[in-house]
Design brief:
Blueprint (H helix, E strand, L loop, with lengths): L10 E3 L1 E2 L4 H13 L5 E4 L2 H4 L23 H7 L9 E5 L4 H18 L4 H7 L1 E4 L3 H8 L6 H18 L3 E2 L1 E4 L1 H5 L4 H22 L7 H7 E5 L5 H21 L13 E4 L12 H12 L10 E3 L12 H17 L13 H23 L3 H6 L2 H19 L33 H18 L1 H19 L5 H9 L4 H12 L31 H19 L4 E5 L8 H12 L3 E4 L6 H10 L4 E6 L4 H14 L7 E5 L3 H10 L3 E3 L6 H15 L8
Parallel strand pairs: 1-10, 2-3, 3-4, 4-5, 5-6, 7-8, 8-9, 9-10, 11-12, 11-13, 13-14, 14-15
Helix pairs in contact: 1-3, 4-5, 4-19, 7-9, 9-11, 9-14, 11-12, 11-14, 18-19, 18-20, 21-26, 23-24
Length: 692
């Protein structure tokens, strides 16, 4: 048998980072030793939103969903013993992307000098990606800091710097991943992310920092970060549609003639939204199917892949869980014959028809956005956010109604006891509870030691003054940022200096303009139909809300709160929309609220229940503060319910502290949740069980 030559495998990563720079460095070394071929750095929420660990909004968030990086010393520790000039590093960082790249640049310089190498040449060898897609932050992930104008300025400055100084670096990663998590259909994913890319490239052209003849180099370094759900055929066709649309767009709109520069280059993490807490072992086959959607088609194959772990709906995965996901990639790449063949879908009439359908739909939606003035105008008007909230609401309704089947959740729910989750408290990674205290002490010690030295204090002060001055002008901000990095400026100081010039931005929530719940009329509940009486359930809850309000002599008011820095607002938005549809008056002020602000709003709005949504793991820090605040404010008859990724042990403790109900991903039926909230209100107000 003739041996076929194999294509080179995609870059294999796991998304990792937690607790501290030193702990994350140890994890990276272990993962690289297991055959991982690139790094994907997860930063904690304070770092992503430009706060030092001792900021009030950082409470409970430090080291939870990623690694805290406060200054160049932390970045130095994060990559200790890992030569950056030989590494491919992806950094999931957006609003503070310029700052993290500046720190990375500074450490690469230090490593080169220590090795006796040329720092300039070392910088030119740096390979990797900063995610840096601010538009999707306004729509889905919520780690934005500045408004659209300043954010585009930071992106264009990074692009202009990297295209000449770090030519192998991808300065932006247009990210459709979180759009799908927020409810986007494949057509919306295509249209919104490509419209974002258009806005970025238009801004680069308008800024004039890159000569026209180098625009192809810019296009060649634009990358994408995609999502792949379990609908295998549709997701694979979506990626082929991306390839076609990007090739057309960059040639026709920007005149790029080199096909290599027009190549659609993307990395992927497959869908985490579809992972279930119920029967979580089913997540393994979901992850495999989703990976196949972005690897089987050679003409649309991902350049880098990172897979979630089977237990991410339960909490943070352990190193062993991440190893399992890495091994899934390795088996496909090294044991199968996939990489020996050309595209196995070429010529398929089914695939061609589906791709054509997606392309046509995306072009229609892109034209609609263009008519509004572009993606920034579509963000600021609230159109895009409302569309995503509506799409997500429809997707949830279909699952709740049983129209869309989710194995182990709304069908085939009978199960044998799973050895994987026999002890839920050990089935996930638990961050060291002392991480935050140590990080707070460390950043204060860093600032104190820096400022105790007159020369270092002056260098930091001068660097920040230059940053403010450059921000107030049209000067490229990368040079000032790198100077700040070398001078020992902290993440919070860098961001605060820009906040003084650019201000801060609160994005649309999309809740008030989302359409009222629709769906089928009363449907059969026959056992063989698998479809529930969804609208009947909602009507029953509406009746209970109305009758309870009548008994209390008022309308029931439900405050939905997002304490801390967790910007994953999809769940909170869906709870708010369903509560509105169930007849509650809803108070929802968006993300990034302190416990004190939530308590103040609950008292001012005279609400009957407070619902807190936390997915970042900070529930044990923030929820008790809300409970204490309500008691101190005299609102002892206002119950608190909590939703999020909450381990059983934490849920038990929260109930002991006074939380009336805890909801986790297994509680997928929003109508049922609304019914339970009514019961909670009735108990808190001394009423009988649900009204007859």
């Amino acid at each position: 048998m003739t041996e076929r030559p194999k294509d080179r495998p995609w870059v294999m990563r796991t998304y990792a980072g937690h607790s501290s720079a030193a702990a994350s460095n140890a994890l990276y070394r272990r993962n690289l030793a297991k055959g991982q071929t690139g790094l994907s750095v997860a930063f904690d929420l304070p770092t992503q939103t430009g706060h030092d660990p001792d900021h009030v909004l950082a409470r409970g968030e430090v080291g939870k969903v990623g690694v805290p990086i406060s200054h160049v010393g932390d970045m130095r520790a994060l990559f200790d013993g890992i030569p950056l000039a030989e590494m491919n590093t992806s950094m999931t960082i957006n609003a503070t992307a310029m700052w993290l790249l500046a720190l990375y640049d500074a450490v690469a310089e230090e490593q080169a000098e220590e090795a006796g190498a040329d720092p300039v040449e070392a910088r030119r060898r740096l390979a990797g990606t900063t995610q840096n897609d601010i538009v999707k932050e306004y729509l889905s992930r919520g780690t934005h800091v500045f408004g659209p104008g300043p954010s585009l300025r930071l992106i264009t400055d990074m692009i202009a710097y990297t295209v000449t100084e770090i030519p192998r670096w991808n300065p932006i990663n247009i990210c459709s991943y979180h759009l799908q998590e927020a409810g986007a259909t494949p057509v919306q994913e295509l249209a919104y992310s490509l419209s974002t890319a258009t806005a970025v490239l238009d801004a680069v052209v308008a800024a004039g920092q890159v000569p026209q003849e180098s625009l192809g180099d810019v296009v060649g370094r634009i990358s994408f970060f995609a999502n792949a759900g379990v609908r295998f055929v549709e997701e694979m066709c979506k990626m082929r549609a991306f390839v076609q649309l990007w090739d057309e767009l960059t040639q026709e709109r920007y005149g790029v003639q080199d096909p290599k520069q027009r190549r659609f280059r993307y990395g992927v993490q497959v869908n985490s939204l579809g992972l279930t807490e119920a029967q979580p072992e089913n997540n393994v086959q979901r992850i495999v199917l989703e990976m196949l959607a972005v690897t089987l088609s050679k003409d649309a194959r991902a350049r880098a892949v990172q897979l979630p772990a089977w237990n991410e709906a339960l909490g943070l995965p352990r190193p062993w869980d991440q190893q399992w996901s890495l091994r899934i990639q390795q088996v496909l790449a090294y044991e199968s014959d996939l990489l020996e063949h050309d595209d196995i879908f070429a010529g398929s009439t089914v695939v061609e028809a589906k791709v054509a359908e997606l392309v046509a739909g995306a072009k229609e939606e892109m034209a609609r956005i263009e008519a509004m003035g572009g993606v920034i105008e579509a963000v600021e008007s609230g159109y895009l956010k409302s569309a995503l909230v509506a799409s997500h609401a429809e997707r949830r309704r279909r699952i709740e109604a049983g129209v869309d089947k989710v194995v182990g959740v709304n069908c085939f729910q009978g199960t044998e006891p799973s050895p994987l989750t026999a002890d839920l408290d050990t089935a996930i990674h638990v961050a060291d509870p002392d991480v935050e205290e140590r990080a707070v002490e460390a950043v204060r010690r860093w600032r104190d030691e820096r400022d105790a030295d007159p020369d270092r204090r002056a260098a930091a002060r001068d660097a920040l003054e230059r940053l403010r001055a450059d921000a107030a002008s049209t000067t490229n901000l990368m040079a000032a940022s790198i100077e700040c990095a070398r001078a020992g400026v902290t993440t919070g100081e860098w961001t605060d200096a820009l906040r003084e010039v650019f201000g801060e931005y609160r994005a649309h929530t999309g809740v008030s303009s989302a359409p009222v719940a629709g769906g089928p009329d009363r449907m059969s509940t026959a056992e063989d139909s698998g479809v529930t009486d969804w609208r009947g359930e909602l009507a029953d809850v509406r009746d209970a809300v109305r009758r309870t309000g009548d008994e209390l002599g008022t309308h029931l008011r439900f405050l939905v709160g997002k304490p801390g820095l967790d910007g994953h607002s999809n769940g909170a938005e869906q709870v708010a929309v369903r509560a509105r549809d169930a007849g509650f008056e809803v108070v929802y002020q968006g993300i990034r609220l302190t416990p004190e602000q939530i308590v103040a709003a609950a008292v001012a709005e005279d609400v009957h229940v407070v619902g807190l949504s936390i997915l970042s793991g900070s529930h044990m820090s923030l929820v008790p503060e809300v409970l204490t605040g309500l008691r101190e404010a005299g609102a002892t008859d206002v119950p608190v319910v909590v939703g999020g990724i909450i381990p059983d042990a934490d849920a038990r403790r929260l109930r002991e502290l006074g939380v009336a109900a805890v909801f986790t991903p297994k509680d997928f039926g929003l109508n049922d949740i609304m019914g339970q909230v009514v019961e909670v209100i009735r108990r808190a107000r001394g009423l009988d069980s649900r009204p007859e």
